[in-house]
Every structure is written in structure tokens, then in C-alpha cells.
Amino acid sequence: MTGPPTPTPAGPPDRRPGGRTARVRAQVLDAVRAELAERGHEGLTMERVAARAGVHRTTVHRRWRDVGGLLADVIDAAGETDWQPPDTGSLRGDLTALNREIQQSLVVRPSLALALMAASFHSEQAARAQTRLWAVRYAQCEVLVGRAAARGELPPGRTDAHGLLMAATAPVHHHLVLLRADPDPLLPERAAAAAVLAAAAGAFTRGGGGGGGDARQ
Q1: Assigned domain for 166 exists
Q2: C-alpha 197: how far from its chain's center?
Q3: Is the separation of the CB atoms in 47 and 30 below 8 Å?
Q4: Average pLDDT of the chain?
Q5: ∠ CA 44-38-48 to the nearest 5 degrees?
Q6: Per-residue pLDDT tens for 75-92?
Q7: Mean pLDDT of 56-60
Q8: Domain check: are 136 and 181 in the same one?
Q9: Which structural domain, as residue segments, surrounds residue 116?
Q10: Is the residue at 169 inside a domain?
């Protein structure tokens, strides 16, 4: 699945209960991230996470039940961070900056983003959490299309923001994840430029009825 980047939070925000509960969650999720980075999802176990977090394993089992629960909570925590899409003053600049964030998250070693992608193919809970995260990120990034319309960068009508974002970011994922090629420093801007040209030509413009992911201009 392609989409905007998955930020790696240093710890969970204050959206969940505070005090000891929040501290335990922070310790456990940090341990999950570290274990994923070192061993991948194949080596992730409740026992290793508990030992690394300094938490009794019954606490981990009681709250998260299994590895799938741990993975889902790590992904959900990423969606709780105060991430904002780029604002460079142009659609091409915004999409380029977004692609550079995505590329960095995929090429850094070890890559938590890649580990979570792999894990989502082996855990239904993680897969559902990943889907929720992408939905949130795409919704957040629709502002890029709205700003571009206000600046007159996109044609009149209705722009499928989701389709435009997919077209702009997919080449980076394809290059790094599917082809496993070395990072291309020019690809983030090249992919962004191609998507902008397509959008300006009306490739993502819809007329008539509405649908999810459209940005009115």
C-alpha cells in the first residue's frame, strides 16, 4: 500500500490515560519499535518486549493479548502524533517534500516503516491499523490539493485528492519497496512534477457527483 509517511513518535501523546498507564504504554511501545528494528516482525515476541520494556510479561499479555495487538498499537500511536503535511507554497514543492519524507522513512536503517509494512501482511490487527493510519494521513494531505486550488494551480472542477496523492507518492514506494533499488535523490521531485502536470491537465478532475477524497475547487 502506498501513502504518506509513517512518523515514528518518541512516545505517545496525552490522548490516553496518564500516570502509570501511559508510562507502561510508552515503555512497551518503545520496546516493540526497538525489537522490530533489530529483529523484524519475525523475531517479535511478547516475552522479549516485556523484558526490554522492564514490564512484567503478564501486564503485556493482559493489555495487548498478543503480538498483533502490540503491532496495531504501535501503528495507532504513529497516527496520534502531531504530524502536518508540508507547506512550501506550491503543489509541486509540497508533493516533493512529502516524497522526501517518505523516502527517508524507507531508506533509514533500520526502517520501522518497512518493518510495519511487512508485519501488516502477517497480522490482521496490524493490517487494519495500517489501513486506519493511511486513511488519516490521506485525509490530512488533502489540504495540499485545497491550497493548490486556491492558488489557481489546478483546473476548475473537482479534483480527486486521493488519486493525485497516490500518483505522486506511489513511484517512491515502487522504487524502494517493490524493486528494492537504491534511493534516487531525484525521484521525489520527478514523481511530484509528473503528478502535478497530470493534475493540471485534468487527469484527476471529476465532474458531477461527489465521492470520498475529492477536494472542491
Answers
A1: yes
A2: 25
A3: no
A4: 88
A5: 35
A6: 999 988 889 999 999 999
A7: 96
A8: yes
A9: 91-216
A10: yes
| Tally of CB atoms within 10 A around 97 | 18
The whole-angstrom separation of Cα 139 and Cα 149 is 16
pLDDT tens profile 2-44: 555 654 444 444 444 568 899 999 999 999 999 998 988 899 9
pLDDT digits (tens, 9 = 90+) for 165-202: 999 999 999 999 999 999 999 999 999 999 999 999 99
Domains identified in the chain, total number = 2
- 38-75 in b/e form (b: 16+ CB < 10 A) is eeebeebebebbbebbebeeeebeeebeebbbbbbbbb
Q: Which residue has the higher pLDDT, 133 or 155?
A: 133
Give the chain as a DSSP string. Answer: ---S-----SS--TTS--HHHHHHHHHHHHHHHHHHHHHTGGG--HHHHHHHHT--HHHHHHHH-SHHHHHHHHHHHHHTS-------SSHHHHHHHHHHHHHHHHHSSS-HHHHHHHHHTT-HHHHHHHHHHHHHHHHHHHHHHHHHHHTT-S-SSEEEHHHHHHHHHHHHHIIIIIS-PPP-TTHHHHHHHHHHHHHHTTTTEE-SS--TTEEE-
Tracing cell 499479555 back to the chain, one arrives at: 61
Read off the pTM: 0.82
- Cell numbers at 160, concatenated: 480527486
